[in-house]
């Protein structure tokens, strides 16, 4: 089995990826880390995503990323087009087995049925821009 885990040297923001289970087992990780990682998935659900299997490729990618998130991080999924939709009432949830499965189920059901493309509103919703 292959996994990845980013490592950071002091003062270096660039992460190197560890790719084998053996390397992961050698890491001296704390038992419980605070949730300092947040991931927001902005998923284009506009009508243009219907052509050339774009939505299916996007769904596959989001599911892959959802299965690869670090434990206890915060994550959210915002679908957008001419409207936007958050998976939960609040855009961010703590990642655990329950929220992961809920998010995967919701992602698999996504369709390219949100009309046009309004990208600024979901960015505001995610609090990425003011």
How are the SSEs placed, and which strands pair?
Layout: E1 5-7, E2 16-18, H1 21-26, E3 38-44, H2 54-68, E4 74-80, E5 84-86, E6 93-94, H3 97-108, H4 120-125
Parallel strand pairs: 3-4
Antiparallel strand pairs: 1-2, 4-5, 4-6
Helix pairs in contact: 2-3
Q: Write down the domain tally.
A: 2
Q: Supply the CATH architecture of the largest domain.
A: 3-Layer(aba) Sandwich
β-sheet strand percentage:
15-25%
Helix residue percentage: 25-40%
**Unreliable residue runs:** 1-33
- Compute the separation of the termini in Å: 42 Å
* Secondary-structure element string: EEHEHEEEHH
The Cα radius of gyration reads 17 Å
The CATH superfamily name of the largest domain is: von Willebrand factor, type A domain
Tell me, what is the CATH class of the largest domain?
A: Alpha Beta
Major β-sheet profile: 4 strands, mixed
What overall geometry do the principal axes of the alpha carbons give? Answer: globular
Count of individual helical segments: 4
Number of strands: 6
CATH names the topology of the largest domain as: Rossmann fold
Structural class: alpha+beta
> Roughly what is the average pLDDT, rounded to an integer?
76
What this model shows, in words?
The strands form 2 sheets. Strands 3, 4, 5 and 6 form a 4-stranded mixed beta sheet that branches. The protein has helices at residues 21-26, 54-68, 97-108, 120-125, and strands spanning 5-7, 16-18, 38-44, 74-80, 84-86, 93-94. It folds into 2 domains: 1-30, no CATH class; 32-125, 3-Layer(aba) Sandwich (Rossmann fold). It has 130 residues and is α+β, with helices and mostly antiparallel strands. The protein is globular, with a radius of gyration of 17 Å. A hairpin with a 3-residue loop joins β4 and β5.
């Amino acid at each position: 089995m292959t996994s990845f885990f980013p490592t950071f040297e002091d003062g270096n923001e660039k992460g190197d990826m560890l790719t084998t289970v053996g390397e992961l087992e050698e890491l001296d990780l704390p038992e419980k880390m605070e949730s300092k990682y947040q991931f927001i998935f902005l998923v284009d659900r506009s009508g243009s995503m219907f052509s050339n299997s774009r939505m299916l490729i996007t769904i596959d990618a989001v599911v892959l990323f959802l299965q690869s998130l670090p434990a206890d991080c915060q994550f959210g999924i915002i679908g957008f087009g001419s409207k936007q939709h958050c998976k939960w009432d609040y855009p961010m949830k703590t990642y655990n087995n329950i929220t992961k499965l809920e998010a995967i189920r919701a992602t698999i059901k996504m369709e390219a049925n949100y009309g046009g493309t309004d990208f600024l509103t979901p960015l505001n919703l995610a609090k990425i821009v003011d």
